């Protein structure tokens, strides 16, 4: 929240990047501080270039000069100083601790399994008051590893274990468990995304296990697919979906679906007109699930002549659908630059769902035994969850044997949100190695 009296404004890198799209010279600001520069996300790397150009052009135009401060505890100072034309460097002395680093001698195809093995090797040989911090890539991996640790801990030698997850989507009350003092004689193992890489200090951590999924530590390089994925300004899972789409002849549909999934909720359900809104929604619903339903909504929106009025009549959010339309144009431009073949699967929507599975293969769930009609599922991470009441498949019976979901929502219960029915064998087709691991863990 800002006003004419605002002196200091705190932004995420993504918000500043969006402001730079409409104001490349960032004329609102006289000083820009870019913190945690060592993280080197796509957004921050682009911002380093934007502020450098803005500073140069404002000096040439003799506008108000722009001061840029780049901060980090661990960045490569020489590289940044050279990039910013030999700018001055200020060192603020901090406190450091001696650290011994050990690298794996061999490459591990299954780094999750290797991490669990390392955890229990250390668990058997280190004192109980030495807590562990393990870096993983996301919520699904964290929940899978957490489940594995709890099972193995029942028979493992060593002190009792308390496992604490830490990721951005975790409720605040559960995040706070990480900082609670561990009871005497018990070991705490924190499973975290890069949210714990900077800005937070977790006491009593003595061992850090980093699963960093590279070929050569001295010269780390992205894979060919990874390099292509960085071209898209979206979640890497969705980038993978788009890059696999030509293989399934569905890039036309994949672009629309990824665009609308990258926006906010497109449905508008006012309390006083709930029944009417739900009735209108029926014309978009696909028995295949929520993803195809969203695609139907977006395609109808694109064809509507008077879009704002059409959205009002159909209880849809005009702003979010317009935003999705703009995202699609941007993604289409990236696909064209990569010379990707734009094709449509027409009514063969199984192809689109298989394509979606190729990027979201970690987001599978299977119907629980004996509960086929109850909509109860177990995710690949071993989490028991139900179909969310707002979803298309919630009222369909019998419930499909396997589903693909976009989000896992934790309230008093766990729910899978934005869900589509899939065939269990599809996972073996698009991600065979992951399918084998899932079968072994179930």
UniProtKB/TrEMBL annotation:
Gene3D superfamilies: P-loop containing nucleotide triphosphate hydrolases. It holds the Pfam family OB_NTP_bind. InterPro entries: DEAD-box_helicase_OB_fold (IPR011709), DNA/RNA_helicase_DEAH_CS (IPR002464), Helicase-assoc_dom (IPR007502), Helicase_ATP-bd (IPR014001), Helicase_C-like (IPR001650), P-loop_NTPase (IPR027417). Residues 118-286 form the Helicase C-terminal domain. One of its GO terms (molecular function) is ATP binding. It is an enzyme of class 3 (hydrolase). One of its GO terms (biological process) is positive regulation of transcription by RNA polymerase I. Its EC number is 3.6.4.13. Residues 1-93 form the Helicase ATP-binding domain. One of its GO terms (cellular component) is nucleolus. Keywords: ATP-binding, Helicase, Hydrolase, Nucleotide-binding. This is RNA helicase. It comes from Pararge aegeria aegeria. The lineage of its organism: Eukaryota, Metazoa, Ecdysozoa, Arthropoda, Hexapoda. The gene is jg14404.
């Amino acid at each position: 929240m800002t006003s004419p009296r605002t002196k200091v404004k705190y932004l995420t890198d993504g918000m500043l990047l969006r402001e730079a799209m409409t104001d490349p010279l960032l004329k609102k600001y006289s000083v820009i501080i870019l913190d945690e520069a060592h993280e080197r996300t796509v957004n921050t790397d682009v911002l380093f270039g934007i502020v450098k150009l803005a500073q140069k052009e404002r000096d040439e135009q003799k506008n108000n000069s722009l001061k840029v401060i780049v901060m980090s505890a661990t960045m490569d100072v020489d590289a940044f100083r050279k990039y910013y034309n030999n700018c001055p460097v200020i060192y603020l002395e901090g406190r450091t601790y001696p650290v011994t680093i050990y690298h794996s001698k061999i490459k591990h195809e299954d780094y999750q399994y290797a991490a669990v093995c390392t955890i229990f090797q250390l668990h058997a040989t280190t004192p109980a008051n030495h807590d562990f911090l393990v870096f993983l890539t996301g919520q699904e991996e964290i929940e899978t590893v957490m489940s594995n640790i709890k099972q193995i801990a029942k028979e493992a030698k060593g002190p009792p274990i308390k496992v604490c997850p830490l990721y951005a989507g975790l409720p605040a009350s559960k995040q706070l468990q990480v900082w609670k003092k561990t009871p005497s004689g018990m070991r705490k193992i924190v499973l975290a995304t890069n949210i714990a890489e900077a800005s937070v200090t977790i006491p009593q951590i003595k061992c850090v296990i980093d699963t960093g999924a590279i070929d050569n530590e001295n010269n780390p390089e992205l894979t060919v697919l990874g390099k292509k994925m960085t071209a898209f300004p979206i979640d890497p899972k969705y980038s993978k979906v788009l890059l696999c789409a030509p293989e399934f002849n569905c890039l036309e549909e994949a672009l629309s679906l990824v665009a609308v999934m990258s926006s906010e909720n497109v449905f508008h359900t006012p309390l006083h007109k709930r029944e009417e809104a739900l009735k209108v929604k029926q014309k978009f619903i696909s028995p295949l699930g929520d993803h195809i339903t969203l695609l139907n909504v977006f395609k109808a929106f694109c064809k509507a002549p008077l879009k704002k009025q059409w959205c009002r009549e159909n209880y849809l959010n005009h702003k979010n659908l317009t935003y999705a339309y703009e995202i699609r144009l941007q993604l289409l431009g990236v696909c064209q630059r990569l010379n990707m073949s734009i094709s449509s699967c027409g009514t063969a929507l199984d192809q689109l769902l298989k394509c979606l599975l190729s990027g979201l293969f970690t987001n599978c769930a299977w119907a629980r035994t004996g509960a086929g009609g109850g909509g109860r599922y177990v995710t690949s991470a071993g989490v028991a969850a139900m179909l969310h009441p707002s979803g298309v498949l919630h009222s369909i019976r019998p419930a499909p044997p396997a589903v693909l979901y976009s989000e896992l929502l934790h309230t008093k219960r766990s729910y899978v949100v934005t869900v589509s029915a899939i065939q269990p064998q599809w996972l073996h087709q698009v991600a065979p190695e992951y399918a084998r691991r899932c079968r072994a863990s179930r």
